[in-house]
Write a structure and sequence with these properties.
The chain is of the alpha+beta class. It contains 8 helices and 16 strands. It holds the Pfam family CreD.
Length: 450
């Protein structure tokens, strides 16, 4: 389109104010295709989440575990009162039923060695791991006195050992516990009335009359999982010590307890972390009667997730779309007023659509490469297109080159903000303040009455 100097006119539609209103309305109109782009990013992100969930389901889901727990049955008597209708006599009876008491270890040491890797499917990736967990510790003599349960009502020879966990299908080897010099094999237990999301492993009967608590009640067992996303442990020992190491370089420590800062190390090759939790640090006792409570509230562990995936970065970039469009239009508007060159609203529309194309290019290239490379390629393509288009509009070199440098600086500024986490708001605020100051400086002599 051929450009020419703006003729002098008293028409209100030719005033700077009217032109700015039209450009502002166009900016708002371009938010519609920008929202479609954001919807596309959200759709692709949802697709990724679905693929990751499928990968995790096949490989192994998150790991949550606590145990081993002594489960000891005892006989409970309840008195019932009935009235004989014929004789009108009151009859008292004692009805026996079997209930269970649960006792946690005195000392519990857990060592977890976790090897992580990335699994890829098409353009998507998921973080998975294989963890070998070694448990050892000991029990003290179970105390039924707090419930006034007589020793003759305790079924010591029918005790079992219980583990509450998730992800049973991804356990890689048989699980055996050694207690009192004897090995006991765990078997899965079906429980149709479970009160939480855990599953259970339980041994055959353990005759506790043959175990001298103190010196002969030490136990140890290993369990190996394939899992994904998370490992969480409940500190059921009176003293619980956990040591964890992994080759994952960006762990997120989660749950009710954090590792010891003095021993925690995160390097380029992985991390090591140690916890020590005492019974006074959590609000549950070392035994439970009748019902084993849901202790997930007191769990702690590590999340193995990719810190910022490609769709999160694309989504963050698209949030700055309105800023990019608005500032680019403002630059063209200021150039139009300083150079007295007329820029048609259609030309503004083409520039705006080119700016929106940046985000579709960004997400499509990211899926086949990485975010940084995609951002650079998309930025070069859009900046080059708008700069070349500016040469045909402005008919000189000075202003198009200024536009090219301005867009390059703007996209670089946004990329820096996206990469920052803790300082994103600070850097963004300072940058926008400087941009506002520059706009105020260059627009100070514009006669808005024309």
């Amino acid at each position: 389109m051929e450009t020419q100097e703006t003729p002098k006119s008293n028409s209100i539609f030719q005033s700077n104010t009217a032109k700015m209103i039209m450009v502002g309305l166009l900016t708002l109109f371009l938010l519609i295709p920008l929202e479609y782009v954001k919807s596309l990013i959200s759709e692709r992100s949802s697709r990724q989440n679905g693929v990751i969930a499928e990968i995790n389901d096949k490989w192994g889901q998150d790991v949550y575990i606590y145990g081993p727990i002594l489960k000891i049955p005892y006989t409970s008597y309840e008195e019932t009162v009935t009235v004989n209708e014929k004789t009108k006599e009151t009859v008292k009876q004692k009805v026996a039923s079997t209930k269970y008491a649960y006792f946690f270890p005195e000392e519990l040491d857990i060592n977890s060695d976790t090897n992580t890797k990335i699994l890829n499917r098409n353009n998507y990736e998921a973080a998975v791991f294989t963890t070998n967990m070694k448990f050892k510790g000991n029990y003290v003599q179970p105390n039924f006195g707090i419930k006034n349960i007589a020793n003759e009502n305790i079924q010591w020879d029918k005790a079992t050992i219980l583990i509450k966990t998730t992800n049973l299908k991804s356990i890689k080897d048989e699980v055996k516990i050694k207690l009192g010099g004897t090995n006991y094999t765990f078997e899965p237990v079906y429980n149709s009335t479970k009160l939480d999301n855990t599953e259970a492993l339980e041994t055959r009967y353990v005759d506790l009359t043959k175990i001298f608590f103190g010196s002969n009640s030490n136990f140890n067992f290993d369990i190996t999982y394939n899992g994904s996303e998370q490992i969480k442990i409940v500190p059921i020992g009176k003293t619980t010590k956990v040591s964890m190491k992994s080759n994952w370089t960006s762990p997120s420590f989660t749950g009710n307890f954090l590792p010891d800062d003095k021993t925690k190390k995160i390097t380029k090759t992985g991390f090591t972390a140690n916890w020590k939790i005492l019974h006074i640090n959590r609000a549950f006792s070392q035994q439970a009667f009748d019902i084993l409570p849901d202790l997930n509230t007191y769990s702690f562990g590590v999340d193995f997730v990719i810190p910022i995936d490609q769709y999160q970065q694309n989504e963050r970039a698209s949030k700055y779309g309105f800023l990019v469009i608005g500032l680019t239009f403002l630059i063209f508007f200021l150039i139009q007023n300083m150079s007295k060159i007329s820029i048609h609203i259609f030309q503004y529309s083409m520039i705006g659509l080119a700016l929106i194309m940046f985000y579709t290019l960004l997400i499509s290239i990211t899926e086949h490469s990485n975010f940084t490379k995609a951002y650079v390629l998309s930025g070069i393509a859009v900046v080059s297109l708008i700069t070349a288009y500016s040469f045909s509009i402005l008919k000189n070199r000075k202003f198009p080159m200024f536009i090219g440098f301005s867009l390059t600086g703007l996209y670089t500024f946004i990329y820096v903000i996206i990469q920052l986490e803790n300082y994103a708001l600070l850097v963004g605020s300072v940058g926008l303040f400087l941009i506002l100051a520059a706009v105020m400086y260059f627009s100070r002599k514009i006669d808005w009455g024309k």
